[in-house]
Amino acid sequence: MPPLKRKEKILVTGGAGFIGSAYCRLLVQKGYRVCIVDRLTYAGDRGRLKEVLPQAGFHRADICQAERMRTIFKKERPDIVVHFAAETHVDRSILDARPFIQTNVVGTQLMVQLSMDSGVKRFLHISTDEVYGDHRQGHFKEFESPLQPNNPYAATKAGAELLVRAAIRTFSFPAIIIRPSNNYGPWQYPEKLIPVVILKALSDERVPVYGKGEQVREWLYVEDCARAIECVMSKGCVGEIYNIGSGFEQPNIKTVKMILACLNKPERLIQYVKDRPGHDFRYSVDIARIKKLGWQPQVPFEEGLELTVDWCLDHQGWLLRKARSLKDHWSKVYKVQKTKERV
Ligand SMILES: NC(=O)c1ccc[n+]([C@@H]2O[C@H](COP(=O)([O-])OP(=O)(O)OC[C@H]3O[C@@H](n4cnc5c(N)ncnc54)[C@H](O)[C@@H]3O)[C@@H](O)[C@H]2O)c1
């Protein structure tokens, strides 16, 4: 496939989210024309886009609203669609799967349909490594490992992917599926592990850790993820699936202790809470396929974590504002274990 020209217009769904906004920043830096569609749910924030707007167009819209989205496609006439918009927090999907089914499955099908109707040259579907489920050893491979999602969020992401796959096969839809591992970095909403730990520790509050903190995650710095997606957008092959990961994995408890050390906070802040139901033990992806396109991760975990902690220190007001709206959520999700275990 010939490399893309910079003047092409990219429509980014979920561009006001954590990864979507990092992606928009990269696109604008590289001179692409960008337009963003985002409903601005609790997880979306235009503040993440201050370097991107007004160069990029912005539409506050729900990807599930067919007529509104049809009008936006007609107006913007995108060459490429990069589809990030989703409900993304596993704990919320366990409490109520309905918004996940709506946005992640129904919304994705509508994005596929409108992209086909408007003849886009390429559609990048941002999926997740969680569609594989978990395993204790080895690395998930794109076409060899089965899809075995274990929580409602992952199940809806797998469902969305299968709709994209079906469109590729049935309609020769020019789509590519991307499965990133756990991202972290600036602007992440403080309901995900790393910003939760930073926020709680900064406020000298107890830091909740699921179970014994033994679950293993592969951590990918958000800017590395954005570069990987841009690499796939420019050089990837239609019909392909690409994992994105860093190769760096470790148990959550180690990550929590690294953050506490970084902030000079005591480990006695750690509070073990009842494990998440169905909690996946370990994710780890094989990244040989994307490496062949010339991408590789650039930010080692220690460095990325330091950058993230520094960013949080500089943006405590933002984190605290977000945290205020999370109080109810935390009381529903974290159930403290009556256990003597302390580290
Ligand atoms: N964060 C991770 O570690 C990670 C890892 C792998 C894959 N992913 C995938 O990457 C994508 C982005 O993740 P994120 O962490 O940036 O998520 P996020 O929750 O920070 O952002 C999601 C964005 O989508 C928007 N959105 C939600 N529903 C919408 C709707 N109906 N219409 C329009 N906009 C809507 C939200 O307002 C928000 O801006 C998701 O598809 C997610 O599944 C995330």
Q: What is the fold's blueprint, element by element?
A:
Blueprint: E1 9-13, H1 18-29, E2 33-38, E3 57-60, H2 66-76, E4 80-83, H3 90-95, H4 98-117, E5 122-126, H5 152-171, E6 175-180, E7 182-184, H6 193-202, E8 207-210, E9 216-221, H7 222-235, E10 241-244, E11 249-251, H8 252-262, E12 270-273, H9 288-291, H10 301-314, H11 316-324, H12 327-333
Parallel strand pairs: 1-2, 1-4, 2-3, 4-5, 5-6, 6-10, 7-9, 8-12
Antiparallel strand pairs: 9-11
Helix pairs in contact: 1-7, 2-4, 4-5, 6-8, 6-10
The protein binds nicotinamide-adenine-dinucleotide.
Structure, described:
The chain is built from 12 helices and 12 strands. The model is unreliable at 338-343 (pLDDT under 50). It has a domain at 9-184 and 220-244: Rossmann fold. The strands form 3 sheets. A 7-stranded parallel beta sheet has the order 3-2-1-4-5-6-10, sandwiched between helices. The chain has a 3-stranded mixed beta sheet with strand order 7-9-11. With 343 residues, it is α/β, with parallel strands linked by helices. Strand 5, helix 5 (152-171) and strand 6 form a beta-alpha-beta unit. The longest helix has 20 residues, at 98-117. The chain has helices at residues 18-29, 66-76, 90-95, 98-117, 152-171, 193-202, 222-235, 252-262, 288-291, 301-314, 316-324, 327-333, and strands spanning 9-13, 33-38, 57-60, 80-83, 122-126, 175-180, 182-184, 207-210, 216-221, 241-244, 249-251, 270-273. Helix 1 crosses helix 7 (222-235), helix 6 (193-202) runs parallel beside helix 8 and helix 6 crosses helix 10. The structure holds nicotinamide-adenine-dinucleotide (NAD). Residues 14, 16-20, 37-41, 43-44, 62-64, 84-88, 103, 107, 126, 128, 157, 180, 182-183, 189 line the site of nicotinamide-adenine-dinucleotide.
